[in-house]
Design a protein that fits this description.
single chain; 391 residues; alpha/beta; Rossmann fold; seven-stranded parallel beta sheet; two-stranded antiparallel sheet; 14 helices; 43% helix; globular; binds nicotinamide-adenine-dinucleotide
């Protein structure tokens, strides 16, 4: 099959196996080039097939030399249709890891369910030395969650809270900048977004693992958040998703208490904005990110998922001096993004940017390239005219 990108807005329904494989290899090569990280070596990543979770798994395997278990929800390819990018990413990761003598086992299923938690806990007991893990990275991004007790489906929305949002946005395929107006969420939408993207499920993972005694002494866990600059606060930090992230912070404090008897700890890592399937779906963010990319690339401070995750492990989680969290238990990996000089420059561009000057003022090309790269497209080292098996 010849596989081409089929996209509509922020959704691309095809993915290229060879491109995804090369994306994974590139991340592995990055971690190998940075060298080993001193730390423990039994790691579970929930949400391990794309974005930050995949990068965390690569940093764990190739930086820490860890045995990894990964959990994700992806569509396998079949004879008539390509699979999802995460499916190909995971297959590539497993092949590389095994080839390099690293244990890697993955489960494709609904991480919100009791069954998947039970199966993963059992794998840890059977496959990890001592039947325990040292680190759980929680990196889920999902539009919906089925309640494991009641079966009720919660849907998350990306909306402002308490006020109409008006701001600039971009159609990143066409390069047209326009004004959007988004009505505020109602109470039900806020509650459901918190139920999907808040910390409830992270806490359930920890409780399931504690009950089965699979957490080692000194166990660490981290989940991811985003704060961002003033331009995106109304739609992100102060919107429905921000409400969910506040819940994540509350849950991290609860989890920290639960882990105290093990000498463990829980963190919310506030990460940098990067192009992923999850972030592409948020209005306004692609415009902000294409400006941010321009500024951070000029400043030589730009990072993608794997650079962030290597730095999280090397400089924070497993730094000999400790994780350097703030007073709310947050690790700030967005330090370079929010540097005042960078944000001042972003603000100046934000005020001036329009459809006529965006190509010059922002790195829209870089944004678009990263978007298609997510699905294995737009790489120079892949022959996209070649026949490939989607299976
Ligand atoms: P992503 O879309 O690339 O990854 C989501 C992962 O979750 C995938 O592995 C997917 O398979 C998995 N997943 C989704 N639903 C699942 C389910 N029901 N069961 C099992 N797995 C499931 O997203 P991302 O951008 O890497 O986001 C990960 C986390 O990082 C989120 O909490 C997000 O808010 C946070 N974050 C993202 C950014 C950013 O700019 N992308 C910045 C800061 C923080």
């Amino acid at each position: 099959m010849i596989i081409r990108p089929k996209y509509r807005g922020f959704i691309c329904t095809t993915a290229h196996p060879a491109g995804c494989e090369n994306n994974v290899r590139q991340q592995i090569d990055y971690v190998k080039s940075k060298g080993r990280i001193k730390g423990p070596a039994r790691v579970l990543v929930v949400g391990s097939s794309t974005g930050y979770g995949l990068a965390a798994r690569i940093a764990a395997a190739y930086g820490l030399g860890a045995r990894t278990v990964g959990v994700f929800f992806e569509r396998p390819g079949d004879a008539g249709k390509p699979g999802s990018a995460g499916w190909y990413n995971n297959r590539a990761f497993e092949n590389f890891a095994r080839g390099d003598g690293l244990f890697a086992k993955s489960l494709n299923g609904d991480a919100f369910s009791k069954e998947v938690k039970r199966d993963v806990v059992q794998w840890i007991q059977e496959e990890m030395p001592g039947g325990q893990i040292d680190l759980l990275i929680y990196s889920l991004a999902s539009p919906r969650r089925a309640d494991p007790e009641t079966g009720q489906i919660y849907n998350s929305v990306i909306k402002p809270v308490g006020q109409v949002f008006r701001g600039k946005t971009v159609d990143f395929h066409k390069g047209t900048v326009s004004e959007v107006s988004i009505e505020p969420a109602d109470e039900k939408e806020i509650g459901e977004t918190v139920a999907v993207m808040g910390g409830a499920d992270w806490r359930l993972w920890i409780e399931a693992a504690l009950a089965a005694h699979v957490l080692a002494d000194g166990f660490l866990t981290a989940a991811f958040s985003y704060l961002g600059p003033a331009q995106t606060h109304a739609i992100y930090k102060d919107g429905t998703i921000g409400m969910a992230k506040r819940d994540l912070e509350r849950k991290s404090a609860e989890i920290r208490e639960r882990l105290a008897p093990l000498g463990g700890n829980a963190f919310v890592s506030v990460n940098k904005a990067v192009v992923t399937q999850a972030s592409a779906a948020i209005p306004v963010v692609p415009l902000y990110m294409s400006i941010l990319y321009k500024v951070m690339k000029e400043n030589h401070t730009h990072e993608g998922c794997v650079e962030q995750m290597y730095r999280l492990f090397h400089d924070r989680l497993y730094h000999p001096a400790g994780a350097a969290a703030d007073d709310r238990g947050r690790i700030r990996m967005d330090d370079l993004e929010l540097r005042p000089d960078a944000q001042l420059r972003v603000h100046e561009i934000w005020e001036r940017v329009d459809s006529g000057n965006i190509a010059e003022l922002a790195d829209l090309e870089g944004y678009r390239k990263d978007f298609f790269n997510l699905f294995g497209f737009g790489r120079d080292d892949v022959d996209y005219e070649a026949d490939v098996s989607p299976v």
